Amino acid sequence: MATTLCSKATSIIPSSVLRRRLPLVGAFCVLSLGFSNLCSSISYSAFKTGCAQSLPFVPLLRSKFGSRASEKRFNTIRMEASSNTVPSIVVYVTVPNKEAGKKLAESIVKEKLAACVNRVPGIESVYEWKGEIQTDSEELLIIKTRQSLLEALTEHVKGNHEYEVPEVIALPITGGNIQYLEWLKNSTRD
């Protein structure tokens, strides 16, 4: 049966595209619904772009396995949907060792520049610095804070970090557990 599915799949879609782009959800659909039931309505562009949202069976998955109502049941939100939260970010900062990480993390939380800082030991960074490839053992700080505090946080890191050019990279938080995001707001300064 697997051989039949593979030969049908490669006759419609090149195997390299199928192997690289078909998400696990797509594989689940193929196995549970049968590839022949999906072939008539799948457009090649959905596989080419790698966008699972454009596949025709996504609405079926949502109706069977979840919906917007189930998101509320698990108490999750989108950031713009609640007045009890603020636009929030996750910030990555690398430090040279455990002691530096602990000191910087504690000062960030003490100053209410972040609600929480996770310290992840044992990372290895490979980068180019002043024309040479460097490899260093470091610790990663994962900082959860308000978007409005990014500039103050960046200045705090630069003023309390031993690196000449410390890493400060921010990523948006687009949703999550409403109680956690409310706590993040209440644990940081305005």
From TrEMBL:
Subcellular location: Plastid, Chloroplast
Membrane-spanning intervals of the chain: none
GO cellular component: chloroplast
A single GO BP: response to metal ion
Listed Pfam families: CutA1
Keywords carried by this UniProt record: Chloroplast, Plastid, Transit peptide
UniProt-listed InterPro entries: Ion_tolerance_CutA, N-reg_PII-like_a/b, N-reg_PII/ATP_PRibTrfase_C
Main location: plastid
Highest taxon of the lineage: Eukaryota
GO molecular function: copper ion binding
Family (UniProt): Belongs to the CutA family.
Protein name: Protein CutA chloroplastic
Species for this entry: Tripterygium wilfordii
